[in-house]
Amino acid sequence: MIFSVPISVRVTTEAAISVYPNPATGTFTVRYTTTLSQQAEIGIFDMASRLIKQMSVTVNQGQNDFVVDASGMGNGTYVVSFLPSDGQKSSERLIIQGR
Fold first, then answer.
1. Would the pTM count as exceeding 0.90?
2. For residue range 56-97, what is the model confidence (pLDDT) as tens digits?
3. What does CATH list as the number for 17-96?
4. Residue-wise DSSP of 36-86
5. pLDDT beyond 80 at 8
6. What does residue 61 show for φ and ψ, rounded to 5 degrees?
7. Sequence-separated (6 or more) residues with CB below 8 Å from residue 34
8. Distance (Å, rounded) from C-alpha 2 to C-alpha 49?
9. Which of 37, 67, 77, 87 has its CA 20 to 30 A from that of 57?
10. Please, how many CA atoms are within 13 Å of residue 71, restricted to the half-sphere of its CB?
11. At 14, is the secondary structure helix, strand, or coil?
């Protein structure tokens, strides 16, 4: 007797961000690589979940580097949130020091 078992394969365009340098001082870069061209929002939040900075960016297929100015951000730990229009949100912690 032969049994057939359905297999589910999920094709995803998920891509995580990387943030560098970390710790940062004056500027830092958010890197995102994807197979889709789309719009995205980058949000910088303090540890109390307050929005400190926000920028709208255009993401192209392949590797994307977005330089963020850290001026106005005091020393501390922040969360960098990246939300592309496909809804695949990524977040990374960032430390700002030496300011």
1. no
2. 999 999 999 999 999 989 999 999 999 999 999 999 999 999
3. 2.60.40.2550
4. S-EEEEEEEEETT--EEEEEEEEE-SEEEEEEEE-TTPPSEEEEEEEEETT
5. no
6. -60, 140
7. 13, 15, 59, 61, 62, 64, 84
8. 55
9. 77
10. 1
11. coil
